[in-house]
NACHT domain-containing protein (Amphiprion percula), 1214 residues
Amino acid sequence: MQEVDYYPFSPSDFGDLPDDLTEYLNIDFLDTEKLFDDPTLNCVDEHDDCSDIQKATEVPGEESQPQRNQRTDKQTKNSKKRQRVSQPLCTDENTRRKRQKVAGQAKTKEVQAELTSILPETDVGSVPNPTDSLSGLSTTPPPRIVHLYPSHSAPPIPIQIITIPDAAGYQVVQLSPPPPVIRFPLSNTATAPTYIFVPATSPPCKRRLPPLSPVGGAVAPVQMSSSPTGSLSDSASKAMCPPCASPLSPSIEMSQCKESPPPQSPTVPDIPQGVNDYIQEAKAHMNQVCQDMETGISLTSHYVDVQVSQREALRSGKNTNKCLEKELVIMGDTDRQKSLLGQSQIFGGSNGDKDKRYILLLGNAGMGKTSLIKKLCLDWSRDCLPQFDFVFLLDGKQLSLTEPIFSLQTLLLNLSSYAPSCMDPEAVFTQILAAPKRVLIIFDGFNELREYEMLLQTQEKDLVTSLLKDSKAQTFAVKQLYSAILQRVLLPGCTLLLSTRPRGSALQVLRRTDSLLEMCGFTSTNVETYLTQYFTDPALRASVLDCLKSSSYLRLLCWNPGLCRLVCLVLEQCASLEVLPRTLTGLCHQVLCLKMEKERKNACAEAQTQTPGQSVQDKTQILNSCQVKKCDGSNQKKSRKQQRTSSGSRRSMRTKKTQVDEVDEEMKNDVEGADRTEEGELLSQLSSLAWEGVKSNSSILPTGRAVPSKLKAFGLRMGLILCHHLRKRPLVSNSESEGGGRGDKHEMGEEKGNRGSTDVDVDDDLILLWANPFLQSYMAAVHLSLSRTVTDRTFLQTLPFQLGAKGRRRPQREELELTQRFVVGLLFHNRTELQRLHLHSERTLRDVVVSKQASVIKHLEDLSYSDLSPSQVLEACHCVYEASHTSDESSRNSGSTQLVTDLAVNLPEFLTFQGVPLSPPDVFTVQNAVERGGAEGRSFCLDLENSLIQICGLRALVGLNNINTYRACIADVVALWEQLEQAGETGLLQGAVSTFKIHPLRATQVCHIEHLEKLVKIHVHKRLSNSSSQSESILAEGVPAVKQLHKLEFELGPEKGPLALPKLWELLPGLPNLQHLDLENCKIGDREAENLANALTSLCSLEKLNLSQNCIGDQGVKKLTATLKDLPKLHCLSLYSNVISDEGAESLAAVLPQMASLTDLDVSYNKLTDVGVESLGASLRNCNEMKTLRMWNQCIPYGVFERLQHQDSRILLN
C-alpha cells in the first residue's frame, strides 16, 4: 500500500455508471470533432498536467491474447446497445453526418465556452522534466475540462481530457495524486491515441490506496489508473477493461523485466556528496585500524576463515503452550556441517533467503567473535558488504559511562569504535535516519547474555516518548541509547549483530532475534593453516608440527582459536623445553613464564642501554681497589718480581679476569634478586585484581581504586593487560560552543585548519582490561591458591560444586569455572615452579599449598556424583585431570592419585552428557576418566545425545573396551560406521554396531525422524550403503538397536509434526518390535489416520498407542478400528481430545468386544453425545478384560454418566 492524495470527488458521485458511457455523451452537447481534433489536446506536457509527477516503480505485465479475446467476447454479448451507439462514433461516414448535424447549432459554442485551462498546482521545479527523456512528446498548452451531462436534470460532471500519443519513446509515469479513471477506448483505432477522462481536481486528502497497474496495451500512468477498492461500480470497473487487443506498447515491451528476480538489497537512496565522502573516509580508516589482531599479528596475514553454524530456537515437545522460554536446538555433528554458513551468508539475502535484521552470535571465550567482527568491518571497508552504507561498532565497555550527555548522533559518530572524525555530522546523521536499512550496528564486548537482558528491560514511557520525539537534540546515558537501539525504539529498520558468550538468561534476546549463529572453532585443517601462517620458517614449522603430534591434549586445545595462539607461543620455544605442558594449567603457566622471561631480558637490555657508563665505572672501582691491595705487598718483593718470566705475567692476567667475572656474577645475582622480589610483588597485586574481575564477571580492571603506575606499566609490558581509551564526552563543534555549549579550553582542544566545522577532542578516560580471558582466570587462581590473605573458609567457598540456598548446585560462569579448574591444577603443580609466582619462602609456600590441597581432596571426596548434573560431572573430570597430569610425572603425589582413584570408583555407571556441548578437550578428559574407571574394573553406559560431539571424539569414546552401550545422534553414528568400514576396521565396526542403543527414542526434531528412517533402511537392507559389501556379515541379523527399539515418542508438536509424519508412516513397518507409540498433539487428521492404520498392520507387538490431542474424526476412527482389532497385544488406547462424534463412537463400540487385550480406553473430550456414550457403555458389557473407560464430555448431562457409572464401575469421569 502506498499513501497518495485522494480526491473526495469519486465515481460514486456519478451514480451507477453503465458499461458504456458513450450513450450519455449527448451529441447536442459535445462536438467530437472540435473536442478530439483540437491541437491543444493532442499532446500534454506533464509539468503542466499535474501537480506532482514521479516515475513509475512498477511496470505492468503483458496480457495474453486469449484473455483479451475472451473478455471482448463477453462484453460483446452483454452490451448490444453499446455496439449500436459506439459504431457511429467509430465510422468516418457517421462522424461526418453528425458533424453536419450539429454544425449550425448554438450548443457547440456553449461547449467551447466551457473548455477552460487548468493551471499547475505545484512547483514543477521539484519534479524531473519528462520531456528530457521522452521522445515524441511536444510541449502543448494545458489540457481542457469538459462538462458532461448524464441526464437533462442532473448537474454537469467536469471531465479532464488527456491525450497520450503512442510514441516509441514514451515511458509510463505516475501522476500524484492519482484520480479515479474512466477510460474510453475507441474501436478501429489501433494506432490512435487512448483518451482518458479524469474528474477535475479537488482539494486532496490523505488515503492509502493499493497501486494498480495499467491493463493490456494502455499506456496510462500507473497511479493514474488506480482506484480505491469499492470506489467504482461494477459498470465503471468493466469500463476500465479494454475490449480489444491493443498494439504493442512500451509497457508491454518492458513487462519482461517483471519476471526477473527482485533485487537483493533495498533501493539505495541518493547519497549527498559530502556524506559519500565521509563513508569513503570511514572505510579507509576502518581498513587501517581493523588490521591488527594483536601485537605482531594482523588479519591479512594470520586470519583463518572460521565458519559459523546456524542454530535454531524452537518451542518443542508436548507442552508447547506451557513452554515460556525458547530452547536452543542441539544438533549432531552431521547436521551441524549442513548448517555451516560462510561470512557472506551471515546477513542472509542470498539464494532467495530473507534478510536477517537481528542476529545473535554466540561463542565461548577465545572462540574468535571479536576477530570475526573485525573481519566483517574489514570486508565492509573493501566494499564486500554492499547492502550497508554505514557500519558502527558499539562496545560494552561504554556502559561504564553513566552521565546523560550523549545523543544518538554522538553515540554513532563519536563513541563507536573505528569511527573517524566527521566534518558534517548533521548531513551524515540525516542520511542515517533516512535509510536505516542501510545501517549495520554491531554490539561487542558483552561477556554474557544477561548483560543484554538488562538492556532489554521495559523502559519508562516518558523516556521512550523523549527518545522518539527528538533523539538528536536531547541527551541520554549510553545505557539508555543502547537499550533503545536493541528494543527497536531508535533506528528500527537497521541490522543488529550481537556477540556474546552463551551463558546466562536469553529469554528476551531469543524472542527478538531472527538468526542465531555460533562459532564453530578450528578444524584440524584450520589449525594447520594457522600454524603455517604463524611459523614462517619451514624448519621451525616442521619441528612444531612434530611436537604437536606427540601431545594429544595440546593438539585438541587448538580447537579454540584463543588457546591455539597460546599453544603457538609455547611451541616457539619447543627446542628449549624438555617437556611440553599436558594440561591447561601447565599451558597458561608456561605462557606466563615465557612472558616473565621476556620481560627480564627487555629490562636488562634497557638497563644496559640507559646506564652503560655507570656499570663500567662500578667495575673499574672494584678492580682498582683490588689492585691497590696487591701493590702494598708487591713493593717488598720488587727484586724478586723483576726476575719472573713472562709466564708469571700471564698468570696475573688470568687472575685479574677471574676477579672481574666474580664481581659481575655477584652484581648480576644482586640485581636479579631485587628484580625477582619486585616481580613477585607485582604479580601478587595483579593476581588480586584478576580475582576481583572474575568475581564481578568483568574483564575490566576495577576502576574504584587507583592502579599504581608501576603495576600498570608492568602489566602492559608483560602483555597481560591492555589500555583502552574511552571518550567521556562527545566531540563538539564551534557552533555548539558558541551557542552556550561547553566552551572550556581543556575540553575544546585545538582547531584543525580552516575548515567550516572544527572537531575538537575532549577528555579521554583510560581504562585497563585483561588481554586474555584464560590468563585472567589463571592469575585469579594464583591468588586463591598461593595467597596467605585467602583464608581456608573463603577458599572452600570458591571451590566448584557449591550448593545454593535451596540445596541446588549453583550454575557457574565460564570465567569462574576456569578459575576453579586452575586452582586445583596449581595446588598439585610443581612447587619449584610455583615459587616464581609469589614471594613466600619455600617453607611458607609448602604450608599454604599442603593445607589447601587437603581442603580440595576432602571437598571432592565428599561429592555424590549421582547427584551432580551432567555439566558438573564433566567439570569434575576436568579438575581431576588437571590435578593428576602435572608437567612432570615424577612430581605426582599421593593426593592427586587419590583424586583419580576416587573419581574412577564413584563415577555413575550410566554416564550421561545429554544437553552438554562436548568440545574436543572435554571428550579427552572424559575419555581419560573412563579409562581410569576401566583400570578399576568399571564399565559404563554412555549417553552422548544432544552433546555436539564430533565424529572423531565419538570414535575415541566408542573404541574404549569398557563401554557396554552408548547413545548418540543416529546420523553421526551411521557416519562413524561408514568411516570404519572404509578404513577396514572390522573389529571396531563390530563393537560400534553391537553396543549402539536408541531405546527409548524421543523425536523432537524433524531430522530425528529422517535419521531413524535411514537407520531402518540399513536394518532392512542389512548393509550400510548400496555399494558396500564389507558390512554384510556384521549386519546379517540387521541393526540390533532397531530390533531393540520398544518405545517411540513423536514430540514434534502441531507445527513440525505434519512435516515428519509421511516419513514416519514409511519407517513404522521396519519396527516390528515396537511396543509403545506416542503420537500426541501431532495434528493427525482422518487422512493421516488412514495412513497410520496401514502402517500399524505390521506392528504386532504394539501395546500402547497414544493419539491424544489430534484431529481424528469419525472417518479416521473407522479406518483405525479395522486395524486395531487385529493387534493382539494392544492394551492401552488413548483418543483423548479429538473430534469423534457419535458415529465414530458406534464404530469403536462395534469392535471393542473383538479387542480382547485392550484394558484401558480414553475417549474423553470428544464430540460425543449421550447416544455415543450409551453405545460405548453397552459395548463395555461384552469386554471382560477392560479395566477403565474414560469418556467424559461437557456436553453430556451428568445424570447420564452417573447412571452409566452405576451400571458399570469401570466407567470413569476423569
Notes: The chain is about 45% helix and 10% strand.
